[in-house]
């Protein structure tokens, strides 16, 4: 089942036929494995990897910091550009001879934006460093959004410098929680992900992921849902997500709200126009009190939404409540905790 899912994923993300990978327990494990593979491949070339660094846009998921924490590496976060996208020249400035990896998101969690992966690819080739794409959110959404006519910069193995991709089945793959994929361009590269040992009384042990004994249920669920939905099933769900996003974003400007950046997929963040002192966290609290549990972002402050197909049915109801919440906040409602409690 794992081989079948990996073959489908490599094909979907335009990988070479020799591309390979594994199912993991989630995006964080896929990212830890990508960083570990990169580190160990560099060590195999004789580089001193202790305390070496990874250069990331500020919007990268904190799973990279967790990976660096576990693996003895340093994280360098770099400001994004005016469009909230990874800034390759600022990232180049933050790199040095101890940089092992750069990455971009497709899309990033805070704003739902796809970083300029082709430009990051050029930087990676120029400096001979590993390029990872974090497509935990988009790996099983972007291919179908593109089939629906959504224009994205090339973000997957079509970009020659991309060496690994994390893509979660338990997000827009619609599998049960506990399923992600880590994908590699070549088997030689993947070999650095694998752990092997034999210095104990019970013989050799070789495991490709962080787990020893691996849970089969999540893998079976992922395999089943991919086969059950098929390309048409994913496309149909993607159409509903895109419709929900378009309806919600179209309803924001009349309320004096703006979307941050140019999100084209399923995640958005929005808040007041520059110079408007509307307390968006008060709006969030008011919506929360009405039963709408969404996230928030900071700097700029905003409401964060991760849309699913069923949000299409409630988009109009949400916009009505949002209009009321904005009016209440403009009338001076209690701001609540700042920033408010985070609901995942
Ligand atoms: C872009 C991105 N990368 C990585 C992760 C981490 O995934 P997980 O929570 O499955 O470990 C997330 C989770 O939301 C994400 O949005």
3D structure, described in words:
The protein has 344 residues and is of the alpha/beta class. It has 2 domains: 2-194 and 210-227, Type I PLP-dependent aspartate aminotransferase-like (Major domain) (Aspartate Aminotransferase, domain 2, 3-Layer(aba) Sandwich), CATH 3.40.640; 233-330, Aspartate Aminotransferase, domain 1 (Alpha-Beta Complex), CATH 3.90.1150. Helix content is 38%, strand content 18%. It contains 10 helices and 13 strands. The chain has a 7-stranded mixed beta sheet with strand order 1-7-6-5-4-2-3, with helices on both faces. A 4-stranded antiparallel beta sheet has the order 10-11-13-12. Strand 4 (99-105), helix 5 and strand 5 (130-134) form a beta-alpha-beta unit. Helix 2 crosses helix 3. The longest helix has 35 residues, at 216-250. It is globular. The model has no long low-confidence stretch (mean pLDDT 96). The structure holds pyridoxal-5'-phosphate. Pyridoxal-5'-phosphate binds next to helix 2.
Short description:
With 344 residues, the protein is α/β, with parallel strands linked by helices. The protein has 10 helices and 13 strands. Helix 2 (27-44) crosses helix 3 (63-71) and helix 9 (280-289) crosses helix 10.
The helix tally amounts to 10
Write the CATH homologous superfamily of the largest domain: Type I PLP-dependent aspartate aminotransferase-like (Major domain)
- Nearest-integer average pLDDT: 96
Q: Choose one word for the global shape.
A: globular
Instruction: Label the CATH architecture of the largest domain.
Output: 3-Layer(aba) Sandwich
List SSEs in N-to-C order. Answer: HEHEHEHEHEHEEHEEHEEHEEH
Query: Quick one: biggest sheet?
Result: 7 strands, mixed
- How many beta-strand runs? 13
Proportion of residues in β-strands: 15-25%
Query: End-to-end span in angstroms?
Result: 30 Å
How many domain units? 2
Gyration radius, rounded: 21 Å
Which CATH first-tier class of the largest domain would you pick? Answer: Alpha Beta
Strands ordered across the widest β-sheet = 1-7-6-5-4-2-3
Helix content: 25-40%
Q: Which parts are unreliable, with pLDDT below 50 for 5 consecutive residues or more?
A: none
Helix/sheet category: alpha/beta
Which topology of the largest domain does CATH recognise? Aspartate Aminotransferase, domain 2
Write out the distinct hetero groups bound to the structure.
pyridoxal-5'-phosphate
């Amino acid at each position: 089942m794992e081989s079948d899912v990996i073959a489908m994923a490599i094909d979907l993300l335009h990988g070479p036929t020799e591309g390979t990978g594994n199912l993991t327990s989630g995006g964080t494990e896929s990212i830890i494995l990508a960083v570990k593979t990169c580190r160990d491949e560099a060590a195999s070339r004789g580089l001193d990897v202790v305390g070496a660094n990874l250069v990331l846009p500020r919007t990268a998921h904190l799973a990279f910091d967790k990976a660096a924490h576990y693996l003895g590496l340093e994280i360098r976060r770099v400001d994004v550009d005016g469009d909230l996208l990874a800034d390759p020249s600022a990232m180049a400035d933050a790199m040095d001879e101890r940089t092992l990896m750069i990455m971009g998101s497709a899309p990033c969690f805070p704003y739902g934006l796809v970083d300029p992966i082709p430009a990051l690819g050029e930087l990676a080739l120029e400096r001979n460093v590993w390029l990872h794409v974090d497509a935990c959110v988009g790996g099983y959404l972007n291919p179908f959004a593109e089939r629906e006519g959504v224009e994205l910069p090339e973000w997957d193995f079509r970009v020659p410098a991309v060496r690994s991709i994390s893509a979660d089945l338990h997000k827009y793959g619609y599998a049960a929680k506990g399923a992600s994929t880590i994908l590699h361009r070549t088997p030689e590269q993947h070999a650095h992900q694998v752990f092997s040992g034999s210095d104990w009384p019970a013989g050799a042990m070789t495991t490709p992921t962080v787990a020893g004994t691996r849970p089969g249920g999540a893998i079976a669920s992922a395999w089943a849902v991919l086969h059950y939905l098929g390309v048409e099933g994913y496309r149909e769900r993607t159409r509903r997500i895109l419709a929900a996003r378009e309806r919600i974003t179209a309803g924001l400007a009349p309320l004096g709200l703006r979307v941050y950046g140019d999100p084209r997929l399923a995640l958005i963040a929005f808040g007041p126009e520059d110079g408007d002192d509307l307390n968006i966290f008060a709006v969030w609290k008011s919506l929360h009190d009405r039963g709408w549990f969404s996230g928030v972002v900071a700097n700029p402050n905003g409401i964060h939404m991760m849309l699913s197909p069923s949000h299409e049915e409630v988009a109009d109801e949400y916009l009505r409540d949002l209009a009321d919440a904005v009016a209440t906040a403009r009338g001076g409602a209690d701001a609540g905790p700042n920033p408010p409690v985070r609901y995942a």
